[in-house]
Each structure stands twice: as C-alpha cells, then as structure tokens.
Amino acid sequence: MREALAPHVSAILTGVVEPDVRRVASHKIPIVALRATPPPAKSGAATELKRLATNAQEMFRLGRGLDYGTYDHEMTLRFGGLDDVLFVLGQATHFVQDLNQPLHAAWGETRAEHNEIEAQMLYRTRQKDHTYRGFMLVKNYSCFAHEVAQHSSQHARALFFDREIRRVTEVARGQAVNDTANLWQSVFWHALGPERSRQLYGIPSPVGEIGNGSLC
Question: Are 160 and 106 in contact (CB under 8 A)?
C-alpha cells in the first residue's frame, strides 16, 4: 500500500491541511470539562469525518484513480486520478488526527491556552516509530470519530492542568498513527472488498473491528 500511495503524497498532504483553511465544521467532540463553563453546541466533527470517508470510499468504489494496469485508459481518464480520492481521504485524516489531540475532546480552555499547548505538542513531536497494532476494520465512521475522542479525552486533564506535554504527545501520536492506518485501510477494504484490496494494495484481513460499540 505504501508503494502505491507514495507518488501521491502531495495530494494527501494538501487534503490533510485543507480543513484548517476552509472550516465547515467543528474539529472537536467535547467530552471533558476543563472549567465550569457551559458546554459548547453539538459538534459536527463526527458527521464530517463520516461524510469525507464515505465520499472517498465511494469515489474509489466507482473507479476513480484506478491504475492503467487494471482498468483501461478511457475509464481512468473519465474518472480522474488517484489524487482526487486521496485528497478527500486526507481531509478525513485531518479529523482523525485532530480528535487524537486531547484538547479537541474537551472544552473550557481559552483559544490562547489551546494554541500554546498545541504548539508545545508540535514542537516536541519527533519522527519516531510507533507500534502498529494491526488492521482494525472501521464499521461506522461516525462511531469511530466518537471512539477516538473518547480515548483522547482521558488525557485532557493531564495535558491541560499538569502540562504532561511529552507523555501525552507520545501517547496521542502513537494512537493517531494506528487510527489513521485503520481509516485508510478500511476505506479501501469497504470499497474493493477483502480479496481485491489484498491483491491490489496488500491490505490484510482485519484483526478486529472498531466503530461499532456503545457510542454508535
């Protein structure tokens, strides 16, 4: 899968940053209160993640971005390149990564406090190998978003009150790596089916399922 997507890194990264340029929904799912302030309005982050992931899945299922070796040249030109699909998948990835930042699962901090802590987390981020725990198939993208936020919310108070920047950054980054890998493989798996996704992109059988629990 890495080899197939490597030539399209630019499209992926452009999609990842786009939701910060043109905000159409909140990037938070507030679960933990950091101060005694009224909770914000209901977030649209889970709905937006589901919309983007489903769009990418359907684009791929309908043949957009399929290579010339498998599909004829006319079809490839008709539907466009893999960049189109991966741009949308990058947009969905942005929400997965944001929801892994614990302050995106909390409310009550000021904008200045949020930006200060987030900047420190980015500063401490280093290129580091994280343990991949195997392909977990996402059954419902909206439920998946709530599960990601629920998990990251457990570290919100330690991050905000105790400023455990290094520890929480390492935890959040490791989880984001796994969640992103699960999202991508799930989109391909749902679009192509288990056999074709394995043959074309080397996606293995899932070791379990996520996005189908009590938060659905």
Answer: yes
| Among 164, 165, 179, 42, residue whose Cα is nearest residue 98 | 179
For the chain, which residues make up each domain, given as ranges? 2-210
pLDDT tens, residue by residue, 64-90: 654 434 433 333 334 446 889 999 999
Distance CA(31)–CA(156), nearest Å, equals 10
Cβ 124 vs Cβ 74: under 8 Å: no
Tokens 């699909």 correspond to 85
Contacts of residue 12, defined as CB under 8 A and 6 or more positions apart, other chains included, come to: 5, 86, 87, 89, 90, 93
DSSP string, 113-175: HHHHHHHHHHHH-----------EEES-HHHHHHHHHHHHHTTHHHHHTS--HHHHHHHHHHH
pTM score, two decimals? 0.89
Fold designation for 2-210? P1 Nuclease (1.10.575)
Cα separation of 125 and 164, whole Å? 13
